[in-house]
Design goal:
single chain; alpha/beta; 12 helices; 21 strands; six-stranded mixed sheet
Length: 443
């Protein structure tokens, strides 16, 4: 009985009618002629109400199911599917309230729809997480009513369900596809023709515009009476490491996502491309200590190891110790490697403090420092101004942007490769830099 009343809900129309009939019934004490009419209407209405309750509460004739993906992809739209099944003989109105995880800060989730008798209905909605971790779904609440909507019955399904949010594997798959697609340029991917080569000969082929003329095979050209070139394949199994700064400079958010999570997403997408090209990929994270060290490997299963490691990255956002990073790299990364360092500097002075350690890393390895444009400052610097305070703010913003360009020049002057990028373009620009390095045979 308690369960029955907990799932029984009356619509507003019921209370309105009951209030009206009660008022009419009270008036009948002064107007005797209204007594029979009001009492009769009340009995009829109560009878209709009882019939509606019986129709809705005879058996469990409605079911719903929430279908979740195995894991969510961070910063991407993830589909949640709801399957509804009406086993009643008549059309029903349904209000669906899904208890979605608190991290999304949505307290107004409500879907209304109709489902015909003895039929099914499916619909999907999307959720976009901006932080890795565990997300807990609560109950799936469905309020079922007949066409009159006098009475509602609540059904509850899908007790608490846990879903983990991983680094953006959706973006990783998209960039994996685009790296071999003919329409790469539409998404900012560059086609880079190889202009250098290793000593690993692959084949002799016909010359096409853009081939390096230094690779022309004159003997084959004379024999075939047309230009022929030697084709060299990329040197494979080169060690590559993602060095991810998890210090306080990576806490800054842009469009809801922190620089750290942008870097984690990019590291996953880039690692996938590098593994496809048969290179060995490893990683580590650094702040006041060195953590999450994974040795470079080219096995097919290694991407999953990197994914799980990237998922588990946590940070107290302390000050990053580049000296400790250099010492650890000297001990653990003994072979010359490509080091992709994800960090950020907001002023030239902060870069110069770390420059000795960056130069030391660049002596033994090919170091690429990847850091970020402040897009909010960019908008401020380009904004038209009229007030003195706005002019002051614009000048400060332009100074910060100029400082970023100085950092690029300072790093390149010291033989360090750079990528200065907007946060949202990080993955594409990182992969482009890697392809450029491979094409030029720099490693």
């Amino acid at each position: 009985m308690r369960q029955f009343f907990s799932s029984l809900y009356f619509g507003r129309l019921v209370y309105t009618i009951l209030f009206g009939l009660s008022g009419l019934f009270l008036l009948s004490f002064w107007f005797q002629s209204l007594y029979i009419i009001s009492f009769g209407l009340l009995i009829i209405f109560i009878g209709i109400l009882v019939i509606e309750i019986i129709r809705l509460f005879t058996g469990n004739k409605f079911s719903a199911e929430r279908i979740l993906p195995e894991k969510f992809s961070n910063s991407d739209e993830n589909e949640v599917k709801l399957n509804l099944r009406n086993k009643y003989e008549f059309l029903i109105h349904i209000e669906v309230i899904d208890e979605i995880p608190e991290q999304f800060q949505k307290r107004d989730f409500l879907k209304k729809m109709k489902v015909s008798g003895n039929s099914k209905k499916d619909f999907t909605y999307t959720l976009t997480p901006v932080k890795r971790g565990e997300y807990k779904f609560g109950y799936l609440n469905c309020y079922v009513s007949t066409k009159s909507k006098l009475v509602k019955r609540r059904y509850r399904f899908e007790n608490e369900t846990l879903v983990k949010v991983y680094p953006s594997f959706i973006q990783m798959r998209a960039l994996d596809f685009l790296s071999i697609d003919q329409k790469m340029s539409q998404y900012g991917m560059k086609k880079i023709r190889k202009i250098g080569h290793t000593m690993e000969f692959e084949q002799i082929k016909n010359y096409v515009i853009g081939d390096d003329i230094r690779t022309i095979n004159w003997k084959a050209t004379a024999k075939h009476d047309k230009l022929m070139v030697n084709q060299y394949q990329d040197e494979k199994s080169q060690p590559i490491y993602n060095l991810i700064d998890v210090g306080r400079v990576m806490k800054m958010p842009f469009e809801g996502l922190s620089l750290l999570d942008y870097s984690i997403n990019a590291a996953l997408a880039f690692s996938n491309i590098a593994l496809k090209k048969k290179d060995k990929v490893g990683m580590l994270t650094f702040a006041d200590t060195i953590e999450n060290f994974v040795s470079a490997n080219s096995k097919k299963t290694h991407l999953n190891t990197l994914l799980e490691t990237l998922y588990g990255i946590d940070s107290n956002f302390l000050v990053s110790d580049f000296n400790r990073l250099y010492a650890h790299s000297r001990r653990k990364i003994t072979q010359r490697s490509l080091l992709m360092m994800y960090t950020n500097f907001e002023h030239i002075t902060s870069l110069k403090r770390q420059l000795p350690y960056l130069r030391a890393l660049a002596k033994s390895h090919l170091l690429v420092v990847i850091f970020f444009e402040n897009t909010e400052l960019g908008e401020l610097a380009n904004k038209s101004t009229t007030k003195m305070t706005e002019i002051y703010e614009k000048t400060i913003a332009q100074e910060f942007i100029y400082n970023k360009q100085l950092m690029v020049k300072e790093l390149e002057k010291n033989g360090i490769q750079t990528v200065l990028t907007k946060p949202k373009d990080l993955s594409v620009n990182t992969i482009n830099k890697y392809l450029e390095i491979k094409a030029k045979g720099l490693l």
